[in-house]
Design goal:
With about 90 residues, this protein is mostly helical. The chain contains three helices and two strands. It has a two-stranded antiparallel ribbon.
Length: about 90
């Protein structure tokens, strides 16, 4: 798994940046996740780990030849809940 930290991240969408930052926090483990939840200032600025957002999909694809349909109808994408992200 790879991750990068950069002052000039150049993401195509700020929504993607937030999604990948969440992936970075989760990739660093439960203790780091808990530390950031307690004090968000501990988060690493401009860090990303896009792979973490899709970690389940690639092994499923390799084994079954298709990407999984989780059936949950819950999106991991930032801003996907209009009630929580008023425009």
């Amino acid at each position: 798994m790879s991750y990068t930290a950069s002052a000039d991240i150049g993401w195509s969408s700020p929504d993607d940046g937030f999604l990948y930052a969440r992936g970075f926090i989760v990739a660093l483990g439960r203790d780091f996740y808990a530390a950031v939840a307690e004090d968000p200032k501990k988060a690493v600025l401009d860090a990303e780990c896009e792979e973490m957002c899709y970690f389940f999909a690639h092994p499923h694809h390799e084994r079954h030849g298709t990407f999984p349909d989780t059936g949950s109808k819950i999106s991991r994408e930032s801003c996907s809940n209009p009630a929580g992200w008023p425009g």
